[in-house]
Design goal:
26 strands, about 30% helix
Length: about 525
């Protein structure tokens, strides 16, 4: 029996489609692409409502405080940013009029702003409003943006349509940072009125305006009367609903109760791709998923963690070599996801063959490393993972694979928010967790691998790698940054505090009765140009 046969047998209790589909391409890419083209070109009528089903409840609708991907989905329709990410993962102007002008020493960024823009409460958008939001992001004690903007020392109003950011050190990723929540600009009038309660009735610049939120039920937005590009907005109303169950989201899309569905589960993708009445959007993502090993995280602080995985990098390397990334994606995700070799996605301008080469699957070498480390086998460890069907399937496959190399993985299914809390506090041995991804490599590396970073759940860092990461962030030349990131990825693959495993694709679906839905590699559903198809 081959290794592949053994793994398939080991997970035979899982959904049949997840196993039997592992050997064949089940999505007709050309047909799906033709569907998408037809949808984009379909004429739409003005008016109506669209219901978007998300996989989780968004957190607070305050750009300064928010931390969830579900929240970013809602923000995309109501809170524009200084910059955005396009279909090629490039940073492009949104509320800014152009990319920043960077001073020769890299310590000043001058940002021109769009003229004639108003917030959704009718008040003017200008440089002072931008300064107000950025200063709030930087100084509010509970801000989730402070680390992202840590290089910004001050924000100055040059004139009504120009702001200047003065930095403590050169920081090339800053435009990318401003293409996410740190670049969202809030109405100063509403901030003055509500302060830290801004999320109760948020006002930004956007194609849609906030109307109401009913917790665990719906978030309602309506077409803005003040939006600068209002003629491009077709729909009158958006309703976001949080529906964690994949099957319920899909059933309600089919029935017509929902118009757009976030994240079609991979076992259903081949079926949805062939269904009448549904359009499947297939977008490579900048996400990654993997295993984080607790090496030095004790109560959220740097401390001493004991055990074979924490003590010896050879044991962590053996764990990495024990996992067949290609087969994992085939069995767990019908071959619809791709292996991940590191933190830099293949779509990035900084991607090179070196950063896209995965460690080999080599269980024999893994066993040799364990012998060299002098550890007793099987090396037992607890694997914490979210308690949903997809992660359970992944956990069982990893469990079967690593057993062949001398490991015993004990699965610890945990509710997702509880798992995150445990990860931050170091209450785990190995944690299956990922990252939604950022277009600039720094956003995928620094927060997980440097000293004191908020999501360095492993607790591991070295002064040498920290210095390389800082050098890469300070460098403006793309070629030089690319070479630095090659060295950084080599360092990360050598220490294996994060073992990168797979990179999801974004499979979003919508009914054929709606057109103009856009999903870029950041995974955000853009509803600005969406509308109901004429005659549908």
């Amino acid at each position: 029996m081959t290794a592949r046969s053994r793994w398939c047998a080991a997970v035979a209790v899982l959904a049949v489609t997840a196993v039997t589909a592992a050997c064949s391409p089940l999505v007709d890419v050309e047909r799906t692409a033709a569907q998408v083209r037809a949808s984009v070109q379909a004429p739409t009528v003005r008016g109506g409502e669209a219901v978007i089903a998300l996989d989780q409840e968004p957190d607070r609708l305050d750009p300064t405080l928010a931390t969830t991907l579900a929240g970013r989905q809602v923000f995309a329709s109501m809170c524009e940013k200084l910059y955005d990410v396009d279909a090629r993962t490039r940073v492009v102007p949104q509320l800014a009029a152009a990319l920043p002008e960077v001073s020769p020493d890299g310590l000043e960024l001058t940002i021109p702003l769009r003229a004639g823009v108003r917030f959704n409460d009718g008040t003017p958008f200008d440089a002072e409003a931008v300064r107000t939001s950025l200063v709030r992001h930087l100084t509010l004690e509970t801000s989730a943006r402070r680390t992202e903007l840590a290089a910004v020392e001050s924000v100055e109003v040059v004139d009504p349509l120009t702001v200047r950011l003065r930095l403590s050190e050169p920081y090339a990723p800053l435009p990318s940072v401003l293409a996410d929540r740190a670049g969202m600009i809030m109405s100063p009038a509403r901030l003055a009125q509500l302060g830290e309660d801004f999320a109760d009735d948020p006002v930004c610049v956007g194609p849609f305006d906030f109307v109401e939120r009913v917790q665990q039920d719906r978030i309602v937005l309506e077409r803005s009367e003040h939006y600068y590009d209002r003629e491009q907005v077709r729909l009158d109303r958006l309703v976001y609903r949080a529906v964690p169950d994949d099957n319920i989201r899909l059933a309600n899309l089919r029935s017509g109760e929902y118009d757009v569905m976030w994240e079609v589960p991979t076992p259903q993708v081949p079926i949805v791709a062939r269904e009448k009445g549904v359009v499947l959007l297939n977008q490579p993502s900048i996400q990654y998923q993997g295993l984080t090993v607790n090496i030095r995280n004790v109560g959220g602080e740097t401390g001493e963690v004991t055990g074979p995985l924490a003590d010896d990098p050879r044991v962590r390397q053996a764990l990495s070599l024990a996992i067949d990334r290609e087969m994992l994606t085939r069995i767990a995700f019908n071959g619809l996801y791709r292996p991940a070799c590191g933190p830099i996605p293949p779509t990035s301008e900084f991607a090179t063959p070196a950063t896209q080469t995965c460690p080999p699957h080599d269980p024999q070498r893994a066993r040799e490393l364990l012998a060299e480390a002098g550890v007793r086998t099987p090396v037992r460890f607890e694997l914490m993972l979210a308690n949903d069907p997809t992660n359970s399937r992944v956990g069982q496959i990893i469990q079967a694979m690593v057993a062949e190399a001398g490991f015993e993985a004990v699965l610890r299914p945990t509710e997702s928010t509880t798992a995150i809390a445990a990860g931050k506090e170091g209450r785990f041995e190995v944690f299956q967790i990922g990252w939604s991804g950022r277009p600039d490599p720094h956003g995928n590396i620094a927060v997980f691998h440097t000293e004191g970073s908020s999501q360095n759940y492993s607790g591991h860092f070295t002064p040498e790698t920290d210095a390389l990461i800082q050098r890469a962030a300070a460098e403006q030349d793309v070629a030089t940054r690319t070479a630095l990131y090659e060295r950084i990825v080599q360092d990360l693959q050598a220490r294996n505090n994060v073992i990168y495993l797979w990179r999801p694709q974004y499979y979003t679906a919508h009914s054929t009765g709606i057109a103009g839905v856009v999903v870029n590699p950041d995974g955000i559903i853009r509803m600005k140009t969406a509308g109901h198809v004429a005659g549908s």
